[in-house]
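Page 37, continued from 36.
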């Protein structure tokens, strides 16, 4: 299976999502899956395309273009990401919800793959249909919350998506 792993940040940045990806992707590769990372470039000294261990990583200046509302750069990124999606033809996109999710939505047709979204953090303002989160929830085949509270918030905000929402407590963790 070809997996497109989309995240706002990736190694060498350090954080929960980055650590999770650094563990998950090699485990998927060990099971025979091909995984390609799409992420934003935050540091100018990082190459646009590189191997992080065994993981191919493609960095685009998404954060800068979104933050500065640079339409030319956003159009350029959209074209480049669409070309990459057509090239690798993913079977699934694993999207970690964040600001760059907008560009995934803009290029979804190029890849044609269903989207599995993981939601790590929520704000009250994001919990409506007329937000980026609402658009992502409606466009995703499945949405996974990383906490029981997040799952409950998603269920209340998007009841029509209840059959596509999930949350799995970690072993040994108390469930709510």
């Amino acid at each position: 299976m070809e997996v497109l792993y989309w995240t706002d940040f990736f190694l060498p940045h350090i954080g929960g999502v980055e650590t999770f990806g650094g563990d998950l992707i090699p485990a998927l590769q060990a099971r025979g899956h091909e995984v390609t990372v799409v992420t934003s470039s935050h540091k100018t000294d990082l190459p646009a395309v590189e191997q992080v261990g065994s993981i191919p990583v493609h960095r685009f200046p998404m954060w800068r273009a979104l933050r500065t509302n640079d339409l030319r750069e956003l159009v350029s990124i959209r074209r480049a990401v669409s070309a990459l999606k057509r090239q690798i033809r993913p079977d699934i996109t694993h999207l970690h919800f964040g600001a760059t999710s907008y560009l995934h939505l803009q290029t979804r047709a190029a890849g044609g793959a269903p989207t599995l979204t993981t939601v790590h953090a929520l704000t009250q303002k994001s919990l409506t249909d007329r937000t980026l989160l609402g658009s992502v929830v409606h466009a995703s085949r499945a949405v996974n919350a990383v906490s029981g509270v997040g799952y409950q918030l998603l269920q209340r905000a998007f009841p029509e998506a209840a059959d596509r929402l999930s949350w799995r407590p970690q072993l040994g963790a108390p469930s709510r």
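The chain has one domain: 2-166. Flag for discussion at group meeting. The beta strands are 2-6, 34-40, 49-52, 55-60, 92-96, 115-119, 142-145, 165-166.
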